[in-house]
Amino acid sequence: MDKSEKECVSPEGRIWTYSGAENLETATKLKEGCVCKVTGVGNSMTPILKSRQAVIAEPITEETVLEKKDIVLCKVRGHYYLHLVWATRTEGEKEMYLIGNNHGHANGWIPRTQVFGKVVEIL
After folding, report:
1. Which residues contact 82 (CB under 8 A, 6 or more apart)?
2. Is 51 helix (H, G, I), strand (E, B) or coil?
3. 112 located within any domain
4. What are phi and psi of 23, to 5 degrees?
5. The Cα angle at residue 61 between residues 59 and 67, in degrees rounded to 5
């Protein structure tokens, strides 16, 4: 944690050190192991998430279990999203996830390496 980051506590007692948007900077912080407060913009996840409603996301580790209906911060076709895992499959040794919004639009299949954080709390 550098000088510009401070610890904050969520209503459920989770500590985070970085606040950001659905973007590369937040994905990088998650890859570095930071718990992040992430704010998404848009209505693609309503009514689960409203536009500009923040969430707490924990970094994806080897131990993280990702299942259908989990909300994740991920990158699909060059865009960062706080979207749902719609399905999972294995291709050889690679875990793959179908990402989509809450209104029936699929963004596409991505490998686990493109999933950066899992939402553990909606603020």
Report:
1. 22, 38, 40, 45, 49, 55, 57, 71, 72, 73, 119
2. coil
3. yes
4. -155, 180
5. 85
> CA 106 → CA 21, 67, 83, 86, 89, distances in Å?
21, 16, 10, 8, 15
pLDDT of 71: 98
Nearest-angstrom CA–CA distance, 109 and 71: 15
How far, in Å, are 49, 59, 70, 92, 121 from residue 63 at the CA level? Answer: 26, 10, 15, 19, 19
What would the pLDDT profile of 3-15 be if each residue is shown by its tens digit?
456 788 888 888 8
**In the chain, how many domains are there?**
1
Q: Tell me if 3 is assigned to some domain.
A: no
> Which tokens belong to 4?
């510009």
Query: How many residues can be counted in the chain?
Result: 123
Please give the angle made by the CA atoms of 8, 82 and 116, to the nearest 5 degrees.
70
- Range(s) of the domain holding residue 61: 8-122
Alpha carbon distance 82, 92 (integer Å):
27
Rounded CA separation 11/5 (Å): 19
DSSP code of residue 111? E
Which residues in the chain come in under a pLDDT of 70?
1-5
